[in-house]
Write a structure and sequence with these properties.
9-stranded mixed β-sheet, alpha/beta
Length: 623
């Protein structure tokens, strides 16, 4: 069948959950056997979210091809199991950059470049580009099909039946107008059987009057109609149950079928949203409106099993997150990965944020005692670094299950060098670099993330960039156990030294990390079992990265002899990917970001192993 396009827009207010609705709809269509992908169009001028401070938009999510994207792509992958790429995340900055590059090459033959048609044509081109062979993979439809995504086998591309496109921002925003115009044009070019708009709005409750108010929704729809778009489906976000009379009123004033007015009431978990949407027939309504047979309702067996396990778990495991961004969305994928692993370990994971900027030797015991485990979080810049090193020391000396991710792993390495190897001046080039300064406080923007290239200025023909301070020559004294690779030191552009996307990692037999992946891969049930056993023999996995500095292999032998083992190594570069201390319960650091690969139906094996050990430690500690 020809690819069909579903556009998700939002009105009244931001943060209503367009990403969750997009992911939920994708899951429901996927469960019916359709091949789907989901893309996000963000109206901001940044080329991508890579340079954005986490306080602006939450975490930066990295795809397998190394694209730095909005955190909503994490929802898409966690719900559906697809692997998104560069083409699933587009910003206004990328649109304008592409058009300006073409204008500079003379592709427009001297024409005047305008928002319409040139910008809108580029938007439409990118909206339709994802219709084939870009996103890959997908979650299983039944238990029998649930093969692990952590094996080294690749996934083939495919042509999609549905492309779901989420438009960031809110109706009425000036920067969103070109995207809405592109949607309007596509509607007329492709027709109503191939395009459909789902509009998400908010129905507020006025406590003083004791009433739910629909006027904001009506106004939002009228704004949408004003740019030539008639929504076919309305999803109403609400804290209170919406009655039939209210739904009929909204349908009447917004020119929408009553059955197509769906309520999205607050739920205990975002993972209940697909089931809630299915119960109200959202997927069936959309199929009928697009001229497709509805058929029987899928059972969502594995998904419902996950929800049952989640609801049945009662024992709480307390895990500390040691980081510097006091914002839930800054560590969104880590929180969700812990939740996934907790569910499958029959535990409720309760996380406790510990601000590493204010962590001292005097308050370490107060902050970390009683925790069943500690995650030392990733990040960039100087602020909060010493607090993370102190946390690593406390966990190592008290044998607390510890998971260091990216910068967290590097802090574990530095702490081990200082306190076990006796190298008191052990550090990282990032910390010694005079070009990286900490902001005075998170309220003033947090750390400047000096890790990207000046790609936009280069695209305009300015190939000469100022040297990046702190890279190459402005380093202080110290033993750099975390360093740049030699070939990186002469690179002046920030983005040129970044390691982004999925890279291979060979695991050492018998290590705790190897055991975690082996359990995940080699205990699969069903038809894929033999394939999984074959994959296990390779001892090679692929994980996503977002960092610049590396473990310095010059000191690898000293670490190994002192008890910190380098149990995961990139086979082509020899770069260290995983370190662990085998003599401790669970003390593992990864240079990569395993949280980007955890999904609802396939929790990441390292998080599974970590939470399992935390649960054991919790039980022993209580005894």
């Amino acid at each position: 069948m020809e690819t069909k396009y579903i556009f998700i827009t939002g009105g009244v207010a931001s943060s209503l959950g367009k990403g969750i609705i997009s992911a939920s709809l994708g899951k429901l269509l996927q469960a019916r056997g359709y091949r789907i992908t989901i893309q996000k169009f963000d109206p901001y001028i940044n080329i991508d979210p890579g340079t954005l401070n986490p306080y602006e938009h939450g975490e930066c999510y990295v795809t397998v091809d190394g694209t730095e994207t909005d955190l909503d792509l994490g929802h898409y992958e966690r719900f559906t199991g697809i692997e998104t790429t560069r083409d699933n995340s587009v910003t206004t900055g990328r649109i304008y950059m592409s058009v300006i590059e073409r204008e500079r090459r003379g592709d427009y033959l001297g024409k005047t470049i305008q928002v319409v048609p040139h910008i809108t044509d580029e938007i439409k081109r990118k909206m339709q580009r994802t219709s084939s062979a870009l996103s890959q993979g997908g979650e299983c439809l039944s238990d029998r099909d649930c093969a692990s995504p952590f094996s080294p086998m690749g996934r083939s591309g495919e042509v999609f039946d549905f492309v779901i496109t989420e438009i960031g921002g809110t109706i009425g925003d000036i920067e969103s107008q070109p995207f809405l115009e592109a949607i309007r044009q596509l509607r007329w070019e492709l027709g109503p059987r191939r395009t459909l708009n789902v509009h998400l709005t908010y129905v507020p409750y006025l406590a003083a009057a004791g009433e739910l108010k629909t006027k904001p929704t009506q106004t939002s729809v009228k704004q949408l109609q004003g740019v030539g778009i008639q929504p076919e489906v309305l999803v109403l976000r609400t804290e209170h149950t919406l009655g039939d009379e209210l739904r009929r009123k909204v349908a009447h004033f917004c020119n929408v079928d009553v059955e197509a007015v769906i309520q999205s009431q607050d739920l205990p978990s975002i993972y209940e949203v697909p089931v809630n949407m299915q119960q109200q027939g959202l997927d069936g309504i959309i199929l009928r409106k697009m001229g497709l047979e509805v058929g029987p309702t899928p059972g969502l067996g594995p998904w419902r099993k996950f929800l049952e396990l989640r609801g049945a778990a009662t024992e709480v495991v307390d895990i500390a997150l040691v980081g510097k961004y006091d914002l839930q969305d800054a560590y969104k994928s880590i929180l969700e990965s812990l939740a996934h692993a907790g569910t499958y370990n029959n535990r409720k994971v309760k996380t406790h944020f510990v601000n590493s900027e204010f962590l001292t030797r005097e308050n370490l015991e107060e902050k970390l005692s009683g925790m069943a485990g500690v995650v030392i979080c990733p990040g960039f810049g100087l602020r909060g670094i010493e607090g993370k090193i102190l946390a690593a020391e406390y966990c190592r000396t008290h044998d607390v299950p510890t998971f260091g991710i990216c910068l967290g792993m590097q802090m574990m390495v530095i702490e081990f060098a200082r306190n076990v190897l006796g190298w008191k001046d052990a550090t990282s080039r990032e910390l010694a670099s005079t070009g990286l300064k900490a902001s005075p406080s998170p309220s003033k923007g947090g750390d400047v993330q000096l890790h990207r290239s000046v790609a936009f200025s280069n695209a305009l023909g300015n190939q000469t960039s100022p040297p990046m301070e702190g890279l190459g020559e402005a380093f202080g004294e110290g033993i750099y156990v975390i360093d740049l690779m030699e070939e990186q030191k002469s690179i002046r552009q920030m983005g040129g030294t970044m390691r982004l996307g999925a890279y291979e990692c060979e695991l050492r037999d018998g290590s705790k990390a190897w055991e975690a992946y082996a359990i995940d891969d080699c205990h699969a049930d069903g038809a894929a079992n033999q394939v999984q056993h074959a994959a296990c023999k390779l001892h090679c996995i692929k994980e996503r990265h977002r960092h610049r500095y590396e473990f310095n292999n010059e000191y690898r032998e000293a670490y190994e002899q002192a008890g910190m083992k380098c149990v995961g190594v990139n086979p082509s570069s020899g770069l260290v990917e995983i370190v662990e201390v085998p003599s401790l319960r669970w003390y593992i650091g990864t240079q990569f970001h395993p949280e980007y690969s955890s999904t609802v139906l396939h929790p990441h094996p390292l998080f599974m192993s970590f939470v399992k050990e935390c649960a054991k430690f919790h039980c022993q500690d209580n005894k």
